[in-house]
Amino acid sequence: MTHDLSNRLAEGATVVVGSGLAARQLEPFLARTASADRPGAWISAAIDTYQTWTKALWSRTANDSRQHLTAPQALALWRRVIDDSAVAERLISSHSASRWAAEAWQTLLHWRLDPQELSASDADLDFKSFLSWARHYRKALDGNDWIDSPLAAVELASSGKLHGAQTGPVVWADIPEQTPAQQALYRQLDRDGWTMAEWLPPVVQRSSSRVCLSDSADELCVAAQWASERLAQSPAQRLALVIPELGTRGNEVQRVIEDILDPNRVLLGSSTACAYFNPGGEPCDLQPPIGAAVTSLELLSSRGNFNTLSRWLRSPYIASEPGEEYARSVLESNLRTELSVQINFLEAYETGGLARRLRDAAPGLATRLSRALSFLNSEPRYATPTRWAKVWQQVLALLGWPAGIHDPHSTVLPLWENALNELSLLTPITGTVSMLEALAELDLILAQPRPSGPIPLAGISLLERLEDVGPGYDAVWVTGLTDDQWPRPAQANPLLPLRLQLDHGMPGASPRDALQRCQRATQRLIDRTPELIFSWPSRVHEVAAEPSPLLTKIPEVDLATLTSRAVPRLAERMVGTRTRECREDPGPVFEGKEIHGGAGTLSVQARCPLRAFIDSRLGATPLEPQSRGLNARQRGIITHRALELFLRRLPEQTELAVWEPDARDAWAASCAEQALHETFGPARSLLRVLYDLERDRLLVVLASLVANDLKRARFRVDAVEERQVVELKDFRLSCRLDRIDALATGGVAIIDYKTGRNASPADWFKPRLRETQLPLYAQILDTQVTATVIAAVGTDGIQFKGVWAHKEDFLAQPTRLPNERSWSGQLEIWREQLELLVTEYVTGDTRILLDDLDQATGSFAPLTRVYEQLALSRGWIDTWTAP
Predict the structure, then answer these.
(1) Residue 880 — pLDDT band, cuts 50, 70, 90?
(2) Which domain holds residue 796?
(3) Proportion of the chain in helix, strand, coil states, percent, rounded to 5
(4) CATH code, 219
(5) Same-domain check for residues 785 and 652
(6) What is the reported pLDDT for 657?
(7) How far apart are CA 800 and CA 793, in angstroms?
(8) H or E element in which residue 635 lies
């Protein structure tokens, strides 16, 4: 059978296959056969997909002036028809509806049913809508002299123009599950005297087996190990791994397979070729340079926001002046702290002060961006996709894309140009569109998988579906065959009546049909594969799983008969080759006399000395997380500033009592607005709703402050936001005291406003001081202090908690000093605890405390190696020793 196909090719036959993926797999199969017969060189096979072949045949025989639409053009036409329909506004998205409509149209034509001859009842809204769309779609085709592939194939069979049009023999190769339209065309060609033949791969099955693994990750590792061992024995083998959901598991698959097949690839400087091949291809937008191009265009559209700007500033594919790379990274980090990141990029650039920030930080980049925007703004707001493609090329050139591509063999630029060409082909369909609409079309084009080249004659191919496995593989491993995945569930088209699909035997219309198709697909795979292994995980997402019932008659084998034990990852093997060396390596002794960060640094030291070293000594702080609205830090700054402004007018409680309510409220509003202005800046007008919400919140806080202070015993505000320096063990710490009150009952109260985490006075009295701020401030005023108070600022106002000598000083129940301590005794204990923390900090203490592991996790985990240290301390892993 194989030689028969090769002989026909030698005679000039055209081979027709079902899909592009089938064509790419048939090529190496025929090449291996030809090289075995005629070592050295051979003539490449002429292989066409069914769609390409029928399009060429229609163009050659139809004598028709209609333009043949590509698949993306047809899909765009469906979207246009659906978007213009009466039900469009009720759809969540026209993208899914257009895809279903295109599939329904194709299915009906493949089953030789004319949508114009069908009717729907009023109760069947989905089918009724589809028939309406189909009529408008056909009207658009006829009105513009267009034709799509399904319609062209139907017209071919009934055209009567096929006789005498043959240019050579035609072989339909490995096209299973032929549709009625395909069968009719084949019969018509045969009747018209064409030399037609069908070819199926020879039956080469030697062994089939099945094996159960613990989970999907274990399946992947074992399958990769099996493939690695086979290739080690015979590098010329052609293997396939079938991995369900390959598209979504791409990163996991790449890591596992490269770890096993090419472990040295992870080493710095490695330039080895990829250890596997994906015949189905990958989407273009996974290519970082293409992602940078899309990001650049998105930035200059109304879709652009801070996330877009962040990716753009950090991209190595946008040209930089010498030394600007670092400035761009610093700018990105600093912008995270500003409210301008909450608004659209173009608004922030034009009115929010962002243009000035860019000019100050990276003038070269700012100049290129300004030129690109000026050029884009000179273009019409609506243009054809062809025009947008040309405009975008010029915009990207002005921005300096693509920089950083040094490989002369890189396929990035051809892929990008092909995508823009496909976009240009949509011009007859869409007409003029906005930039956003054009970008949406480009996104769809770039999301389609693109084959990266011919399949190698040897090595590993990755496939997503069992049905996709072509001929010529020496061995195949199929993963994920649980009973809920194989046979596939019935998948009827949602736009066609189920009764219609059942009556005509359309694919996936019923569980019985799905079962029969999966049975045939399983048998085809068994017949064409010399060695075949099926596997399934015993658990999926912590739920027990069972094997597919289609595997019942296939013998189950022990894993040891298929592969040796799993090989450890490269890092584990490197560790295992040497003894772990344990040495004392304390952090360096602190140089200088001023400890930066003040009480905050000591509070971190109290909970996690290593994090304090990383954060304060090394200056390694995580990037500001992005959130909608004000984050905790910004809200804290605004609240402290509003309280500071308000209290500067209230030195005595008696003045507060006689203050006119209207004047007091006006002053509160003025303080709130000034505090907000200092943070919002030019973004105020663009974030008006957020501004008004925060203003109302601040007015509640200030009103609560007044209400609480009026109920207290007499006091005088001595200071607000006062900067002080405290010395401990000959080291200086700068502090900023939120508020100091002189109390009529004697002594002073130190008040600290808290807007974020839930601070508790209990942290002041633990064996290891955990909250250092107020105990440290108390050292400044020493024996004058009779109250240390936390003013917790919440959405409903201010609440006091802490320690104070006289109950009437604050409107709450005070916390008592432990063990009947005096104030002087407590101050001395705090000083000893603070001095201990200072000593730890300056001597380079880098411990991780088990009671506060969360301080070493998150962004700090790569530096603290907290999980490894925890495992070692609890004996979960042994220390590394030589084998």
Answers:
(1) very low
(2) 578-623+712-883
(3) 50, 15, 35
(4) 3.40.50.300
(5) no
(6) 81
(7) 9
(8) helix 632-647
Same domain, 236 and 274: yes
| Alpha-carbon span 559 to 464, nearest angstrom | 23
The answer to whether position 309 is within a domain reads yes
Q: pTM to 2 decimals?
A: 0.84
Number of domains comprising the chain? 6
The DSSP symbol for 615 reads: I
The tally of CA atoms less than 13 A away on the side-chain side of residue 823 is: 18
Strands, E, within 274-317: which ranges?
282-283
Across 245-254, 255-264, 692-701, 802-811, which has the greatest mean pLDDT?
692-701
Residues 257 and 234 in one domain: yes
CATH number of the domain at 801, please: 3.90.320
Distance CA 471, CA 763 (A): 70
- The DSSP-derived string for 312-349 is HHH-TTS---TTHHHHHHHHHHHHTTSGGGGS-HHHHH
What confidence category does residue 883 fall into, taking pLDDT thresholds of 50, 70 and 90?
very low
Q: Look at residues 710, 736, 754 and tell me which one is the last residue of a structural domain.
A: 710
CB of 141 closer than 8 Å to CB of 105: no
Report yes or no on 418 lying in a domain.
Answer: yes
Same structural domain, 726 and 840: yes
Average pLDDT over residues 459-469: 92
- 567 lies in a domain? no
Beta bridge partners of 477: 241, 533
Examine the domain organization and report whether 500 and 481 are in the same domain. Answer: yes
Q: Which 3 state secondary structure label does DSSP give 794? A: strand
288 and 276: one domain?
Answer: no
736 and 589 both lie in a single domain: yes
Mean predicted confidence (pLDDT) in 571-580: 57
Element (H, E) at 748: strand 748-754
Within its chain, how far is the Cα of 84 from the centroid?
32
Q: Is residue 588 predicted with pLDDT exceeding 90? A: no
Give the pLDDT band of residue 749 (cuts 50, 70, 90). very high
Helix (H) or strand (E) holding 638: helix 632-647
Residue range 595-652, pLDDT digits in tens: 988 889 999 999 999 999 999 988 888 888 877 888 888 899 999 999 999 988 766 7
- Domain-embedded: residue 638: yes
Residues 870 and 723 in one domain: yes
Neighbours of 669 (CB within 10 A): 14
* Helix H or strand E encompassing 147: strand 146-147
- Check pLDDT > 70 for residue 801: yes
Contact 754, 640 (CB under 8 A): no
> What's the mean per-residue pLDDT of the chain?
87
Using alpha carbons, list the distances in angstroms from residue 457 to 20, 22, 236, 280, 532.
Answer: 17, 15, 8, 16, 19
End position of a domain, from candidates 710, 744, 778: 710
Helical segments of 43-147, H only: 50-61, 71-83, 94-110, 125-143
Q: Dihedral (C-alpha) 586, 589, 594, 597: value to the nearest 10 degrees? A: -10
